[in-house]
């Protein structure tokens, strides 16, 4: 059984460099003026002196090594090996087996396993096997997950468990030493060693079923491979500071670039999942221009395009309450420099509901700081409901028209759509347009958030005309190797406007499903 294999520890980087420096310096000091030192060239006294020096140097390294060994002994009982059997394919007819990792935590008197959503996605509880490093098998009794962050929580039925210590990921710094523990290629409870390479990584296009819409990754060079997903990233104090989630690789294996979800984010999401069964998203209430041109930046008084240019503020939203206005440029959010509108959306979605944060904006050629209290996105149904946001007496009629039609879920775009007919086109004032797919829901945390909104009508994909769901499947099939796709939409209103939005495309493009109605 893979879960019974012994722990292996690889010390990399700094320790090896220290060995080379220490031993190399001493050898050079003893080397004669000519010739090369070999075993045969050493006299007995030189060999004894070299061995004595080696013993002293090794003693110094043993101190550092003991720290790593102690961390492994403390954390080992809290790390689990996960094996799942799941169904894949369009009709879920293909059975596959996968392995991942997780870490045990305690909330109150109950124990839970923290892992990645993509590790257990598509598997029934009875097909999830959890193994401790002592060979014991745990049974998962309940499962929750959050697609937007790729965090999953499994409730387990055992009480004789060792919970890990959760650290504070806000305190980690680039250069800190860390350990990664997991099951690379099914080799359970393997340990690797490295440093924190970077923080705050976002905008990564992750493959497979993992559509992580809200990203704030820790980057590490500790070796992470398939099977490490869900396992802990640990500091030298024996505290978990992240959940290992993804790698950047051309070969499919470790190339020194791995990514972990900060444990503070994991704690926030896990607590919500356990308490309420779902994770809430913070909401700002703005629409931004993406991108805006250098000419537009100069008109605003900026020397170059930067930050997020606000084009519309939703009425009665946190943004409106704070005084944010159209044509404001958000330069910093909660102290973080904003790259563009998607970056702003990402940072907002990562914060807990109710947080009050500073917003540095550029308005009328001056900077200004606003304080904004983030609200719960679910309170604003126009952002996530299946009914377009339309004011006036026709709203009930729109609901009735949509309810009578089939709705389709385009999983690769995170959208729910309905075929546009004459009745619906007339109701939402689309003029002569009577073909296309109207968006009735934008999945929270999905790839289309921030680009497409409820009520938009998809009329083109990659410049191909779209009339029905068959056209969508055809275009997605033709572009299955693409990472992003251009979506042409018509917006509501008498002055209908045709605009293009570029949306990340999930690789499991086949997932187009009819929803019950």
Structural account:
The protein is α+β, with helices and mostly antiparallel strands. 22% of the residues lie in helices and 33% in strands. The strands form five sheets. Strands 22, 23, 24, 25, 26, 27, 28 and 29 form an eight-stranded antiparallel β-sheet that branches. A hairpin with a 2-residue loop joins strand 2 and strand 3. Helix 1 runs antiparallel to helix 2. The chain starts with 13 loop residues before the first helix and ends with a strand. The relative contact order is 0.08.
Q: What key phrases describe this protein's structure?
A:
517 residues, 22% helix, globular, disordered C terminus
Our Rg estimate from Cα atoms comes to 27 Å
What's the overall average pLDDT, rounded? 79
The residue fraction in helices comes out at 10-25%
The major beta sheet can be summarized as: 8 strands, antiparallel
> Structural class given helices, strands, pairing?
alpha+beta
Strand fraction equals: 25-35%
Q: List low-pLDDT spans.
A: 1-35, 89-93, 382-397, 507-517
What's the total count of β strands? Answer: 29
Shape estimate: globular
Distance between the termini: 47 Å
How large is the count of helical segments?
10
